[in-house]
Design goal:
6-stranded mixed β-sheet, alpha/beta, Rossmann fold, 11 helices, binds zinc ion, 2 domains, 256 residues, globular
Protein backbone atom coordinates (compact mmCIF):
# COMPACT_ATOMS: atom_id res chain seq x y z
CA UNK A 1 0.00 0.00 0.00
CA UNK A 2 1.38 3.39 -0.95
CA UNK A 3 1.05 5.99 1.79
CA UNK A 4 -0.88 9.11 0.96
CA UNK A 5 1.42 12.00 1.81
CA UNK A 6 -1.44 14.43 2.22
CA UNK A 7 -2.57 12.45 5.26
CA UNK A 8 0.56 13.05 7.30
CA UNK A 9 -0.35 16.30 9.09
CA UNK A 10 -3.60 14.87 10.48
CA UNK A 11 -1.88 11.80 11.83
CA UNK A 12 0.94 13.86 13.30
CA UNK A 13 -1.46 15.71 15.52
CA UNK A 14 -1.79 12.69 17.75
CA UNK A 15 1.94 12.61 18.45
CA UNK A 16 1.39 13.99 21.92
CA UNK A 17 -1.11 11.22 22.51
CA UNK A 18 -4.29 11.51 24.47
CA UNK A 19 -2.92 13.73 27.23
CA UNK A 20 -2.66 17.53 26.85
CA UNK A 21 -0.06 18.03 29.59
CA UNK A 22 3.44 16.58 29.60
CA UNK A 23 6.52 16.98 31.69
CA UNK A 24 10.11 16.18 30.76
CA UNK A 25 12.28 15.41 33.74
CA UNK A 26 16.02 15.84 33.42
CA UNK A 27 18.85 18.36 33.15
CA UNK A 28 17.42 21.70 32.03
CA UNK A 29 19.10 21.94 28.61
CA UNK A 30 18.24 18.33 27.78
CA UNK A 31 14.62 18.76 28.82
CA UNK A 32 14.36 21.98 26.82
CA UNK A 33 15.79 20.21 23.77
CA UNK A 34 13.04 17.57 24.03
CA UNK A 35 10.35 20.24 24.21
CA UNK A 36 11.78 22.09 21.19
CA UNK A 37 11.87 18.82 19.30
CA UNK A 38 8.29 17.86 20.12
CA UNK A 39 6.98 21.28 19.03
CA UNK A 40 8.92 20.96 15.77
CA UNK A 41 7.48 17.49 15.21
CA UNK A 42 3.99 18.90 15.66
CA UNK A 43 4.39 22.18 13.77
CA UNK A 44 6.94 21.70 10.98
CA UNK A 45 5.36 20.60 7.71
CA UNK A 46 8.16 18.04 7.31
CA UNK A 47 8.01 16.77 10.87
CA UNK A 48 11.26 18.27 12.15
CA UNK A 49 13.42 19.38 9.24
CA UNK A 50 15.51 21.80 11.36
CA UNK A 51 15.85 24.05 8.31
CA UNK A 52 12.51 25.75 7.66
CA UNK A 53 11.46 29.07 9.18
CA UNK A 54 9.03 27.28 11.51
CA UNK A 55 11.79 25.06 12.95
CA UNK A 56 14.12 28.07 13.29
CA UNK A 57 11.49 30.18 15.01
CA UNK A 58 10.73 27.36 17.45
CA UNK A 59 14.44 27.07 18.31
CA UNK A 60 14.61 30.80 18.99
CA UNK A 61 11.41 30.69 21.06
CA UNK A 62 9.85 33.07 18.54
CA UNK A 63 7.23 30.70 17.15
CA UNK A 64 3.83 32.41 17.15
CA UNK A 65 1.99 29.38 18.51
CA UNK A 66 4.20 28.77 21.54
CA UNK A 67 4.49 30.70 24.77
CA UNK A 68 7.67 30.10 26.79
CA UNK A 69 7.80 30.79 30.51
CA UNK A 70 10.88 30.86 32.70
CA UNK A 71 11.00 31.65 36.42
CA UNK A 72 12.99 34.57 37.83
CA UNK A 73 13.76 32.73 41.02
CA UNK A 74 10.31 31.32 41.72
CA UNK A 75 7.33 31.77 39.44
CA UNK A 76 4.98 34.58 40.37
CA UNK A 77 1.24 34.54 39.73
CA UNK A 78 1.35 37.50 37.33
CA UNK A 79 3.71 35.57 35.04
CA UNK A 80 0.71 33.44 34.14
CA UNK A 81 -1.53 36.33 33.10
CA UNK A 82 -0.54 35.94 29.42
CA UNK A 83 -1.31 32.22 29.66
CA UNK A 84 -4.85 32.72 30.90
CA UNK A 85 -5.39 35.54 28.44
CA UNK A 86 -4.29 33.25 25.60
CA UNK A 87 -6.41 30.35 26.85
CA UNK A 88 -9.51 32.54 26.79
CA UNK A 89 -9.30 32.55 22.99
CA UNK A 90 -10.57 29.42 21.31
CA UNK A 91 -8.39 27.91 18.59
CA UNK A 92 -9.62 27.01 15.13
CA UNK A 93 -10.16 23.35 14.44
CA UNK A 94 -6.82 21.62 13.90
CA UNK A 95 -4.91 24.60 15.28
CA UNK A 96 -2.41 24.01 18.10
CA UNK A 97 -0.81 26.18 20.75
CA UNK A 98 1.99 25.19 23.11
CA UNK A 99 2.53 26.61 26.57
CA UNK A 100 5.99 25.79 27.85
CA UNK A 101 6.60 26.05 31.58
CA UNK A 102 10.32 25.64 32.15
CA UNK A 103 11.56 24.60 35.58
CA UNK A 104 8.10 23.67 36.78
CA UNK A 105 9.70 22.66 40.07
CA UNK A 106 9.86 26.44 40.71
CA UNK A 107 6.08 26.75 40.80
CA UNK A 108 4.77 27.97 44.13
CA UNK A 109 1.74 26.30 45.62
CA UNK A 110 -0.48 29.22 44.60
CA UNK A 111 0.84 29.24 41.01
CA UNK A 112 0.33 25.51 40.81
CA UNK A 113 -3.20 25.79 42.16
CA UNK A 114 -4.10 28.37 39.53
CA UNK A 115 -2.95 25.94 36.80
CA UNK A 116 -4.54 22.70 37.96
CA UNK A 117 -7.76 23.04 36.04
CA UNK A 118 -6.13 23.99 32.72
CA UNK A 119 -3.44 21.33 33.04
CA UNK A 120 -6.14 18.74 33.55
CA UNK A 121 -8.36 19.87 30.73
CA UNK A 122 -7.19 22.80 28.60
CA UNK A 123 -9.38 24.11 25.78
CA UNK A 124 -9.01 22.00 22.59
CA UNK A 125 -5.68 22.40 20.79
CA UNK A 126 -3.72 23.68 23.78
CA UNK A 127 -0.78 21.70 25.12
CA UNK A 128 1.21 22.25 28.28
CA UNK A 129 4.84 21.20 28.01
CA UNK A 130 6.73 21.37 31.29
CA UNK A 131 10.30 20.70 32.31
CA UNK A 132 11.78 19.92 35.71
CA UNK A 133 15.13 18.78 37.01
CA UNK A 134 13.80 16.23 39.47
CA UNK A 135 10.46 14.47 39.79
CA UNK A 136 10.63 14.64 43.59
CA UNK A 137 10.70 18.44 43.54
CA UNK A 138 7.43 18.70 41.66
CA UNK A 139 4.19 19.29 43.50
CA UNK A 140 2.16 16.06 43.47
CA UNK A 141 -0.86 17.95 42.13
CA UNK A 142 1.16 18.97 39.05
CA UNK A 143 2.77 15.57 38.64
CA UNK A 144 -0.51 13.68 38.67
CA UNK A 145 -1.89 15.78 35.81
CA UNK A 146 0.99 15.31 33.40
CA UNK A 147 2.39 12.49 31.36
CA UNK A 148 5.91 12.05 32.66
CA UNK A 149 8.86 11.57 30.32
CA UNK A 150 12.16 10.81 32.00
CA UNK A 151 15.31 11.86 30.18
CA UNK A 152 18.50 9.97 30.69
CA UNK A 153 21.61 10.28 28.51
CA UNK A 154 19.69 12.62 26.23
CA UNK A 155 16.98 10.05 25.52
CA UNK A 156 13.41 10.51 26.67
CA UNK A 157 11.68 7.43 28.07
CA UNK A 158 8.64 6.37 30.06
CA UNK A 159 8.13 4.03 32.99
CA UNK A 160 7.89 0.33 32.14
CA UNK A 161 10.45 0.48 29.36
CA UNK A 162 10.56 -3.33 29.47
CA UNK A 163 6.91 -3.58 28.41
CA UNK A 164 7.42 -0.81 25.86
CA UNK A 165 10.20 -2.85 24.24
CA UNK A 166 7.88 -5.84 23.92
CA UNK A 167 5.22 -3.72 22.24
CA UNK A 168 7.56 -2.16 19.70
CA UNK A 169 9.70 -3.85 17.10
CA UNK A 170 12.51 -4.40 19.54
CA UNK A 171 11.44 -7.85 20.74
CA UNK A 172 10.01 -10.73 18.70
CA UNK A 173 6.67 -12.50 19.20
CA UNK A 174 6.65 -14.23 22.58
CA UNK A 175 3.28 -13.95 24.38
CA UNK A 176 4.43 -16.11 27.31
CA UNK A 177 7.44 -13.89 28.02
CA UNK A 178 5.27 -10.80 27.67
CA UNK A 179 2.69 -12.19 30.12
CA UNK A 180 5.42 -12.95 32.62
CA UNK A 181 6.85 -9.45 32.32
CA UNK A 182 3.36 -8.02 32.66
CA UNK A 183 2.66 -10.10 35.75
CA UNK A 184 5.84 -8.83 37.42
CA UNK A 185 5.29 -5.19 36.46
CA UNK A 186 2.49 -4.13 38.85
CA UNK A 187 1.52 -1.58 36.23
CA UNK A 188 -1.41 0.68 37.15
CA UNK A 189 -4.03 2.39 34.92
CA UNK A 190 -2.30 5.74 34.76
CA UNK A 191 1.00 4.15 33.71
CA UNK A 192 -0.87 2.07 31.16
CA UNK A 193 -2.21 5.26 29.59
CA UNK A 194 1.29 6.72 29.55
CA UNK A 195 2.60 3.57 27.94
CA UNK A 196 -0.12 3.69 25.28
CA UNK A 197 0.78 7.33 24.58
CA UNK A 198 4.48 6.51 24.35
CA UNK A 199 3.70 3.69 21.93
CA UNK A 200 1.62 5.99 19.78
CA UNK A 201 4.47 8.48 19.69
CA UNK A 202 6.94 5.71 18.77
CA UNK A 203 4.80 4.39 15.92
CA UNK A 204 4.12 7.90 14.63
CA UNK A 205 7.87 8.33 14.25
CA UNK A 206 8.10 4.97 12.47
CA UNK A 207 5.33 6.11 10.15
CA UNK A 208 7.15 9.34 9.35
CA UNK A 209 10.45 7.56 8.84
CA UNK A 210 8.71 5.19 6.45
CA UNK A 211 7.45 8.14 4.42
CA UNK A 212 10.68 10.14 4.34
CA UNK A 213 12.72 7.04 3.47
CA UNK A 214 10.13 5.88 0.97
CA UNK A 215 9.70 2.50 2.69
CA UNK A 216 6.04 1.60 2.04
CA UNK A 217 6.17 -1.65 4.09
CA UNK A 218 7.29 0.21 7.15
CA UNK A 219 4.71 2.94 6.63
CA UNK A 220 1.90 0.42 6.16
CA UNK A 221 2.86 -1.52 9.30
CA UNK A 222 3.05 1.67 11.36
CA UNK A 223 -0.30 2.79 9.99
CA UNK A 224 -1.93 -0.46 11.15
CA UNK A 225 -0.42 -0.23 14.64
CA UNK A 226 -1.50 3.42 14.92
CA UNK A 227 -5.06 2.39 14.05
CA UNK A 228 -4.95 -0.27 16.80
CA UNK A 229 -3.59 2.20 19.35
CA UNK A 230 -6.15 4.83 18.45
CA UNK A 231 -8.90 2.25 18.82
CA UNK A 232 -7.47 1.16 22.17
CA UNK A 233 -7.21 4.75 23.43
CA UNK A 234 -10.99 5.05 23.11
CA UNK A 235 -11.47 2.26 25.62
CA UNK A 236 -8.68 2.81 28.11
CA UNK A 237 -8.49 0.32 30.99
CA UNK A 238 -10.91 0.32 33.88
CA UNK A 239 -9.33 0.07 37.35
CA UNK A 240 -7.79 -3.35 37.75
CA UNK A 241 -7.87 -4.27 34.08
CA UNK A 242 -4.54 -2.83 32.91
CA UNK A 243 -2.94 -6.21 32.39
CA UNK A 244 -5.85 -7.50 30.36
CA UNK A 245 -5.80 -4.32 28.30
CA UNK A 246 -2.08 -4.60 27.57
CA UNK A 247 -2.23 -8.29 26.80
CA UNK A 248 -4.99 -7.62 24.30
CA UNK A 249 -2.94 -4.78 22.80
CA UNK A 250 0.11 -7.03 22.54
CA UNK A 251 -1.81 -9.74 20.70
CA UNK A 252 -3.35 -7.21 18.32
CA UNK A 253 -0.06 -5.47 17.49
CA UNK A 254 2.04 -8.61 17.24
CA UNK A 255 -0.70 -10.43 15.38
CA UNK A 256 -0.36 -8.10 12.40
ZN1 LIG B 1 10.99 22.39 9.70
Amino acid sequence: MVADKAKVPTVERVLLGTMPSHIWVGAHEEAKKQVVSIIKQQACAKGECNRCTVCKSIEQQQYYAALWLYPEARYTLDQFDPVFKKLSFGLDEGEQFFIVIQKADSLSQSCANSLLKVLEEPPPGYYFLLTAARLDDLLPTIRSRCMIHTISHGVSSVAHQDLFDFLTTIKGYNPAAFSQQLYQSNIIERETMELADALLSFWMKQYKKGITRDAPDRTAQAEKVIAILKGASKKLPMPGSSKLFLRDLYLQIKGL
